[in-house]
Design brief:
alpha+beta, Phosphorylase Kinase, domain 1, Transferase(Phosphotransferase), domain 1, six-stranded antiparallel beta sheet, three-stranded antiparallel beta sheet
Length: 403
Amino acid sequence: MSEAQSVVDRSPKARIGNVFADEFKILQHLSRGDVADTFLAEFIDPPTQVWIKICRAEFSQDRAQAERLLREARAAAAVLHANVLEVLDADIAPEGDVYVVTEAFEGEDLGLLLRRTGRLPWPRVRAIALQIAEGLQAAHEAGVIHRAIKPGNVLLGADDLVKVADFGMVAVEEVTQDREAGTVVLGDAVHFIAPEQALGEAVDQRSDIYSLGVLMYTLLSGRVPFFGRPTQVTMQHKFAAAAALGSVAPEAEIPPLVEALVLKAMSKRREDRYQDMSALVAALQQIDEEGARAGGGKAKAAARKQQPTTDSAMFYSLEALQTALGQTQDPQAQIDILRKMEKALTQLAGGAGARRGRPGSSGSRRASTTPTTTWRPSTSAPSSGRSWYRRTASTPSSRATGR
């Protein structure tokens, strides 16, 4: 780097109004992330508004980091899906800054929403999580792993339209470098990374499934499952059990089936999680907005045929509730947990009507002949965004082109 370059002011405020990379006029500083600052900019010819993420100097000047960030961003450009923020370009500016250009999107990230609301109800979490999962499914089919699913990387627009952003935009040092006590922020990636990622092992699509599970946990309860310095949080991801959602946010009355789904996604061993994103999409669709199995009587009949194995979602729920019961000394909390366990056991048995069924009645004997419902991912599209670039053929079921 030349001496002239070294004295250039690259602070976000200094960039406003200047031309960047000979092509973009910087209009506004939008946010500061773990790796980059995001700006609203205008492409000079033709005049078009875009977002530019300019990586901070410590990442741009580190060759290995710069190459990794560019590689991840260029791979993400292959993912064309209604729930993925489109990457338009990724390069190194003449000034030496690594940058990524994306579509401009009107909305806010989930981190801001959580700070304002505290936590979200299950119906809204379900709708948001389904869109995230469908966007990630398209990315995985294109061979792209996100690696950093967290509130700050999920954007929410009009009518809760979701855009997953910042593929691969995670600071590697984040999981090993201690910070001062009390400065850990909710949106830090270390709170959401999978155990294998925290330990520097190879990641795959099941790592994104774990992160999405932690994100759902956070949206439902209003808090992350583990606290402390980054190194402490890393070890907790690997070895500590997350507190049951029912004990963390009892006032939320999170349904047992929902808690079971979240805990399965957050399994320590990746072999125990949903094995691909399509399986998580299907699991989300099988639970309705009330937290019960979708499909009514047919789903209950199918549930009667199931046994509580370690692969059963209901077993995960009962296991979590039993753990919570042993952790609390509050009599009222114990009563609430016991009621949830009773409800879970009732659902496992196929409903209260099945338990009371009489010979020859419409109870469990007839239900046992009902065929099992086959669940398929929905193909309905969310409302289209207002972005300048949007292709009219893009829907949540769109699949990314190959690299």
